[in-house]
Amino acid sequence: xxxxxxxxxxxxxxxxxxxxxxxxxxxxxxxxxxxxxxxxxxxxxxxxxxxxxxxxxxxxxxxxxxxxxxxxxxxxxxxxxxxxxxxxxxxxxxxxxxxxxxxxxxxxxxxxxxxxxxxxxxxxxxxxxxxxxxxxxxxxxxxxxxxxxxxxxxxxxxxxxxxxxxxxxxxxxxxxxxxxxxxxxxxxxxxxxxxxxxxxxxxxxxxxxxxxxxxxxxxxxxxxxxxxxxxxxxxxxxxxxxxxxxxxxxxxxxxxxxxxxxxxxxxxxxxxxxxxxxxxxxxxxxxxxxxxxxxxxxxxxxxxxxxxxxxxxxxxxxxxxxxxxxxxxxxxxxxxxxxxxxxxxxxxxxxxxxxxxxxxxxxxxxxxxxxxxxxxxxxxxxxxxxxxxxxxxxxxxxxxxxxxxxxxxxxxxxxxxxxxxxxxxxxxxxxxxxxxxxxxxxxxxxxxxxxxxxxxxxxxxxxxxxxxxxxxxxxxxxxxxxxxxxxxxxxxxxxxxxxxxxxxxxxxxxxxxxxxxxxxxxxxxxxxxxxxxxxxxxxxxxxxxxxxxxxxxxxxxxxxxxxxxxxxxxxxxxxxxxxxxxxxxxxxxxxxxxxxxxxxxxxxxxxxxxxxxxxxxxxxxxxxxxxxxxxxxxxxxxxxxxxxxxxxxxxxxxxxxxxxxxxxx
Length: 665
Fold this sequence. Notes:
This protein has three helices and 50 strands. The longest helix has 8 residues, at 319-326.
């Protein structure tokens, strides 16, 4: 299959901005690991989940809900670039949302014992003393809290959520939800004056079982509430009157991936898909923006702007998802459901510019749109923590904050974080690599090896690892641009079809217009340790299995990179194999002309406690070999992420099976 060179059809969208705005970008300045807020008597490996987040009026303290740990957390951002732990407070139930007035945080607490008897209350906490100052019974399970701009009342969505395991999660499942308007007087809750707004009989879907999801209030005191499963939006007046209500409508999706087959295939469609909006925000007093996550039978993977009379004034039409695909963040494991899953949304005005922020829960990205009235234009994409749930604009300090709920501590992955960004006069630092616009949408992820073109400066070739096991590919990258661009790719094929049983971890040129690839073996998955020679079209012309001297001592962590010096290939083995002493790994050599194998030992840096250190890449340049050495730690636990060099003059490979010389790094 010939190399598919992908023509650029449009300039990168941020470059089309007015010059003044084009210089201003949000860039991440700090990350706060919320496990740092756990008390000393709680295991630091306790799972956490920061969800909804709010800030005090002076924007020096953040308050977030943690429904997994049943705690409310505090972060001191007096110095936004160096956030400090403010501690956390255990609450009697699951906190689901928070709003702040003065020094009081109003926290919605879910105390439901089961789905048929939902319960909850609104807790008032003094932020300075962390002492409860009041509570109001809500008569159901709360899900979202909003503070009126004039701070005269609160709106609380009482969802009374369905049991997804009961009758396949089909609605109706009573009791239905409702909306509560709770007056405030001098910042104190007036519980006896709360107003329950009935939302039954409005939607076309399960009208007797409304499930309100998210609320927001405009300057006129109108509350917008999304009924996610009911695919409906309701506008409530300050007096509790239903001013308008309308279906969120449907959309037909084209060129989407709906199969979780470990390949990116954007060829499917879904007709008349209900939007099922989650988060909602007022853009102005007449228009609302919604994130169309879907949670029942729908979800359109995009976001929409409605006039409060129900007219659609803007629909994203999947452009949000496509931008995420192009930067390598598409979540293949969610293809069959919600794609990039837009769940959160925020609006903020910074100086004269209004921005809408849309969070992709599964793509771990926030898209920033500059607004011209109700016409958005993509300004940039921000890397968030894993699963951004809460978005918070803080224009007074030129800050933007995300609360990222996914804590992968039990999978030895990254912890849940609060991320802080500053709007600054500087280029956007992310993304660093994008796929060029093309008439044919393609995706990429997990690039595991790179090599430079021998003749064209700035042109690189990369391979992806086995995460997309049905799509082993060689990508062409133009690094002369910022961000760098993937301009084309070829599939790695056997007999004309994508090759299987590969885990590509390294690539180097063969000097004849093709490439040598290193595939990391896994015996338990019948994936062989091998070198492969492919031509420029990606066709495998030769496969070289590791010799018996290596296979007899193999372990799972094999080839992590390959480079070429003359006729010799050098392969970096990631970790110690059975015949290696602790702290020494092999650099294996293979002469493509003589077919002789050899190796040297490379001394690793010492790992941290309960961790390991290994190699991730090897590249020859001039008279040096360069290797990437790293530990298996993430976040604040990471210690070894280093680039070392080895003089080729000091590298003298010995035959396999015997004592190996140790190189100096």
